[in-house]
């Protein structure tokens, strides 16, 4: 199934690879944030309405956008065609193309940051793909390369990469070996991102799992909460409301998570931490 998705995304990427940020918004986006991981970052808030067609269960988004996630004239997102457009939910609708996307934490995060008068125009770079294992985000793989490509494209009109939001790990909780190796793989991923973006102290805010489809969630959570790297902070999603599928956060939970991520990011701005080797 993932191989089919990969082929679809590769074809899609070949089409957008020649696109450039040429619209009038590119020069005003100053604060760039990467949104990466799997489905709870991509956003499944409100995606619970099921219909059955030809024996297939289809999920639909309820279309409910809470006030905290409403569009803001100073918040943009990088589309799949590498164009800055005004951000609105679902942020990942043209990125996580094989799934039904709903509300994620990105808009709540950005709108919370906008309460700070010192925060200028925000640009969000959605990169999350549902159902992905951390090994599929390893350096040199398609997901990793696409994330780096999109992030570098976001810089074409100027601006600064201010941070990365990372919510992933559910898929690694299925297999014991994956769970046991998760911490080392995640640290290597963070270090590679910083090196390839030439940002050795890039703030990274990761989310400790709230749910998982496998039995090793606590092993993953321990690894996430045990990461000790400068300017890497963790927010704990455990206890936030989850939907009837028992896997994805509800819309209100995503709103709260976005606010938690914003608070954690702002904390990284208050302390000057040493660079990584």
Topology summary:
Layout: H1 2-16, E1 31-37, H2 39-42, E2 47-53, E3 56-61, E4 75-78, E5 84-86, H3 106-113, E6 122-126, H4 142-154, E7 160-167, H5 176-196, E8 204-208, H6 217-225, E9 232-236, H7 251-268
Parallel strand pairs: 1-6, 1-7, 4-6, 7-8, 8-9
Antiparallel strand pairs: 2-3, 4-5
Helix pairs in contact: 3-7, 5-6
Q: Radius of gyration in whole Å, from Cα?
A: 17 Å
Q: How does the helix and strand content classify structurally?
A: alpha/beta
How many β-strand runs?
Answer: 9
Residues in helices, as a percent range: 25-40%
Spatial order of the strands in the main sheet?
5-4-6-1-7-8-9
Poorly predicted residue ranges:
1-22, 272-277
* Biggest sheet statistics: 7 strands, mixed
Helix-strand pattern? HEHEEEEHEHEHEHEH
Apparent shape:
globular
% residues in beta strands: 15-25%
Protein name: Sialate O-acetylesterase domain-containing protein
Keywords: Hydrolase, Signal
Signal peptide: 1-18
GO molecular function, one term: hydrolase activity
Describe the structure.
The chain has 277 residues and is α/β, with parallel strands linked by helices. It is 32% helix and 18% strand. It contains seven helices and nine strands. Strand 4 and strand 5 form a beta hairpin. The termini are far apart.
């Amino acid at each position: 199934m993932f191989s089919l998705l990969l082929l679809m995304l590769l074809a899609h990427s070949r089409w957008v690879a020649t696109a450039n940020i040429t619209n009038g918004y590119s020069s005003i986006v100053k604060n760039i944030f990467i949104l990466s991981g799997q489905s709870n970052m991509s956003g499944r808030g409100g995606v619970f309405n099921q219909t059955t067609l030809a024996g297939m269960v289809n999920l639909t988004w309820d279309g409910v956008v809470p006030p905290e996630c409403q569009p803001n004239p100073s918040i943009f997102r990088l589309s799949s065609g590498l164009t800055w457009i005004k951000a609105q939910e679902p942020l990942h609708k043209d990125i996580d193309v094989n799934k039904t996307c709903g509300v994620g934490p990105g808009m709540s995060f950005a709108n919370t940051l906008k309460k700070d008068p010192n925060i200028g125009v925000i640009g969000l770079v959605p990169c999350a793909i549902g159902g992905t294992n951390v090994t599929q985000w390893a350096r040199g793989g398609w997901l990793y390369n696409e994330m780096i490509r999109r992030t570098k494209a976001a810089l074409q009109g100027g601006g600064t990469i201010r941070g990365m939001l990372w919510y992933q790990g559910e898929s690694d909780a299925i297999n014991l070996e994956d769970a046991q190796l998760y911490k080392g793989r995640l640290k290597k991923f963070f270090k590679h991102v910083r090196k390839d973006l030439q940002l050795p102290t890039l703030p990274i805010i990761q989310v400790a799992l709230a749910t998982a489809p496998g039995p090793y969630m606590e092993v993953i959570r321990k690894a996430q909460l045990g990461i000790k790297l400068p300017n890497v902070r963790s927010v704990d999603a455990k206890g936030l409301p989850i939907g009837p599928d028992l896997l994805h956060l509800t819309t209100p939970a995503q709103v709260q998570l976005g606010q938690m991520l914003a608070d954690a990011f702002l904390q990284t701005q208050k302390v000057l931490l040493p660079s990584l080797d």
